[in-house]
Amino acid sequence: MDPWLIVGGAAALLTTFGFVPQVLKMYRTRAVEDISPLTFVQFMAGVSLWALYGAHIGDPIVLLANVVTLGTLVVAIALYLHLGRRQGGD
After folding, report:
1. Angle at CA of residue 61, ends 17 and 26, nearest 5°
2. How far, CA to CA in Å, does 72 sit from each of 2, 45, 75, 76, 85?
3. Fewer Cβ in 10 A, N or C end of the chain?
4. Per-residue pLDDT of the chain (90 residues; tens, 9 = 90+)
5. What is the 3-state secondary structure (H, E, C) of the chain?
6. Phi, psi for 2 (deg, rounded to 5)
7. Contact 16, 68 (CB under 8 A)
8. pTM to 2 decimals?
9. What is the CB neighbour count within 10 angstroms for residue 2?
10. Other CB atoms closer than 10 Å to residue 79's CB: what's the count?
């Protein structure tokens, strides 16, 4: 197996699940006052472009990692909006 494929796969796993701890913390604490929604939106734009690039070059690792990351960020934004309403308009 190509060692660079392993490096790429490891990088994809680390970045793909990078926001999962934040989502879990938001869910557990029900608190979002210290969260920057702009960070999530900016990262969503970036991973969307990476996913398009991965599709264009036909790289399934780049494509899949960024599609999964985008899904995680959508959950994060939805949780932010839901909990922010409950906290009085964050």
Report:
1. 15
2. 29, 13, 5, 6, 20
3. N
4. 889 989 988 988 898 898 899 999 999 999 998 888 899 899 999 999 999 999 999 999 899 999 999 999 999 999 999 998 877 654
5. CCHHHHHHHHHHHHHHCCCHHHHHHHHHHCCCCCCCHHHHHHHHHHHHHHHHHHHHHCCHHHHHHHHHHHHHHHHHHHHHHHHHHHCCCC
6. -65, 125
7. yes
8. 0.81
9. 7
10. 19
Phi, psi of 78 (to 5 degrees): -60, -45
Give the burial class of 46: count Cβ atoms within 10 A of its Cβ; 0-12 exposed, 13-18 middle, 19 or more buried: middle
Question: Which amino acid does the sequence have at 56?
Answer: H
Total number of domains in the chain? 1
The CATH number of residue 72's host domain is 1.20.1280.290
